[in-house]
Amino acid sequence: MTHLTFSELNTRGLSPKLWAKFAPPVGGDFMSTASGNPAIGFYDDFLEFPTATATGRYGFVDTGSGSVTAIASDGKTASTGMGICQLLTTAADNDEAMLYYGNGVDAPFKLTGTDLVFEARIKLTDITTSSHGFFIGLASVAACVTVQTITASDAIYATADFLGFQQLKAETTAIDGMYQVSGGTNIDGEQDTGLDTIATIGVTDFIKLGFRYNALPGTVEWFFNGVEDKGARLKVTEADASIANSFPDGSYMTPVACLMNDGTTAANLEIDWWACAQLL
Question: What is the pLDDT along the chain (280 residues), one digit of tens a residue?
């Protein structure tokens, strides 16, 4: 029997079907499964935020006029609410804002052995074609450096591991699932049609993006607003067979969000909350 102990949060909070087996976080940390077995992880609603990189639990990168900050709010405005992290870029070319968990020192999650879940609630302020690119999900620490999650040529950095969601500048509303092993092919909607347009985004509403890695039988399930896109379900053995060793299960990774501008339009990526946890 599955215990869905936070179903009341389904609209704005953690998605119950995605987080099955995990007990709700306590004090911002996941510490156990619903049945009481140990787990590790975090949930951050950004009610407080460090003022400088490598303070608190985060590191961040501000390139050009890009910046990572918190939005001031009294909690009374439904469109913003309380506690939002903002990744901001101006119209300047290669403006970048990046947030990463663990200060670039600690990357605690690995896609082997036990189940893992990631989810975030986000909003984008501009969806103009060829104006920006963003990534949110897990990446190895090699990605947590200036223009190394999304490069100046609007591509995912080649020599880091990734699993998550990307929207590069040629897209407007479409968001693809993607994964990559350092030095290998970036597998997204172009290489695997199942990963194409897992989600869509506008400019006014928050959406939830999440994925679940199931150690047995070795699958990744992709979720948009709490609902699985079953056509996108990835079998790790088949992924590795189609392009040798393409699934990023050899490195420790950490949650990363990055927004990169190509110099045409300012944009903000707003994160209401994000969470990542793994069974032990």
Answer: 344 454 445 668 999 999 998 999 998 889 888 878 889 999 999 888 887 887 888 999 999 999 998 876 655 454 455 688 999 988 888 899 999 999 878 899 999 989 999 999 999 887 666 678 899 999 999 999 999 999 988 889 999 999 999 998 878 789 999 999 999 999 999 889 999 999 998 877 899 999 999 999 999 999 999 999 999 999 998 887 777 788 999 999 999 999 998 877 888 899 999 999 999 9
- Helix, strand or coil, per DSSP, at residue 215: coil
- For the chain, the structural domain boundaries read 46-279
Fold of 46-279: Jelly Rolls (2.60.120)
Collapse the DSSP code of 241 into the 3-class scheme (helix H, G, I; strand E, B; otherwise coil) and give the result: helix
pTM above 0.90, yes or no: yes
Separation of alpha carbons 122 and 124, rounded Å: 7
